[in-house]
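Preliminary data (for renewal application), zinc ion complex.
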Amino acid sequence: MGISNHGQYLTQITRLGAFNCYLVHESDGLTLIDTNLPGSAKIILAAAKAQSADIRRIVLTHAHGDHAGSLEGLHKQLPNAEIMISKREAPFLAGNHQLLPAEPQNKPRGNFLTSKVQPTRLLEAGEQIGSLQVIATPGHTPGHIALFDPRDGNLIAGDALGTIFRTAVTGEFVPLFPFPAFATWHKPYALESAKHLLALEPNRLAVGHGKVLEQPQALMKQAILRSEMILAKH
Ligand SMILES: [Zn+2]
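Predicted structure:
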């Protein structure tokens, strides 16, 4: 387990070297982004305590088990914390993997967690959660979101991008850690989402798997170009 601060507002919590969730510091307490693997509640609560602040809000980038895994455990310990997920991803968390008629009919992939915990707020693109802006980033899953903190340009991208081995758009096969690629629903959407994220001109990139990158735009551009080349071949 590793806990590290990145700038004034962001704390990364890592389990097993490769599974991240984040605390975002707000004036009234903390927003937790993702809940990591099952069995992480204790570690996350200890990390919050170390920051001398309470978790007020829990936001899920998507409903895969390594991001939503400790939702239930945390909800038990923090019954008053708000629980948020995108409106499109909420049915996946409830166990309904059906696609909408307007969506590409590729089968959603990866290990979705099904939870009885009810979100208290369903998010749409453009909404605010404290300082964070909700950015729709479909591709890895249909309702995937990223969060952007304009206070210091932090982008918390979930699995829209990865930084293990190399910075890559989700869906690109990355040696050593191919799991997010296997779990990606729609690669062309993922590419469009990555372009949207680069257009925010982030100063710092924090992802579900891999280290936090400072000044990530050049590496994001490279990842997007590589993803474009790979998709053009198919
Ligand atoms: Zn995922």
